[in-house]
Description:
Blueprint: E1 2-6, H1 8-14, E2 19-26, E3 29-36, E4 39-43, H2 57-66, E5 71-75, E6 78-80, E7 90-92, E8 95-99, H3 122-130, E9 134-135, E10 138-142, H4 150-158, E11 163-165, H5 168-177, E12 181-191, H6 198-221
Parallel strand pairs: 1-4, 1-5, 5-12, 6-12, 7-9, 8-10, 10-11
Antiparallel strand pairs: 2-3, 3-4, 6-11, 7-12
Helix pairs in contact: 1-6, 2-5
Bound molecules: hypoxanthine.
Hypoxanthine binds at residues 77-79, 142, 147-148, 164-166, 189-190, 192, 196, 201.
Amino acid sequence: xxxxxxxxxxxxxxxSIKSKEKYVRTRFGDIKVLEGDDFIFVSRHGNPPVxxxxxxxxxxxxxxxxxxxxxxxxxxSVGSLRDKIxxxxxxxxxxxxxxxxxxxxxxxxxxIHVNLYEPFCPKIRRILKNMNxxxxxxxxxxxxxxxxxxxxxxxxxxxxxxVVGMTVAPEARLARELGICYQPICPVVNYVDxxxxxxxxxxxxxxxxxxxxxxxxxxxxxxxxxx
Length: 227
Ligand code: HPA
């Protein structure tokens, strides 16, 4: 069984496979999921969708914990900070910067510190590498919901970021606390520049959805998450 968290476009792609909708009760509220024989899909932003800073990260990740899922892939669109990372391509980042400025944890009562040195899942990356996807790069997470200023872009590049998005840091931190091996797969939907608009980024994700659905299907059909 593999966990998938992503946008509503992917949901439509996956619902063509044999699956059923159900609600999973978590400590943080009920979450609707799509359950197939080999996967559980969670729609990150819910329905109707909420913006990145309002996403129910604790509930979403707890679903995978409750369903005893060890591996989760996250489809998370990003803006590119580097000329060589082109919109329309997909990158599989290896490292994480967190500029959300918020605390993401399940442990508010007692001090429990998990290791986050390797924030994502090397095992999933190996499978994706064999599928000829580009591996590497650092994902910076901003608060959003606005895109970055010119100065923020410069800062992110100076700090070693390659792509920027608004959702991965909370998910990666919470997944690690739950012992889940979590790996983002990032459609690059824009360059971080003055031409970026909400609509552009949505149009680009739509164009890339078939390709993303294929990658997700290949992962569902591969054996690594059954071992
Ligand atoms: N910035 C932050 N998040 C994003 C972007 C961006 O340019 N594109 C898609 N998600």
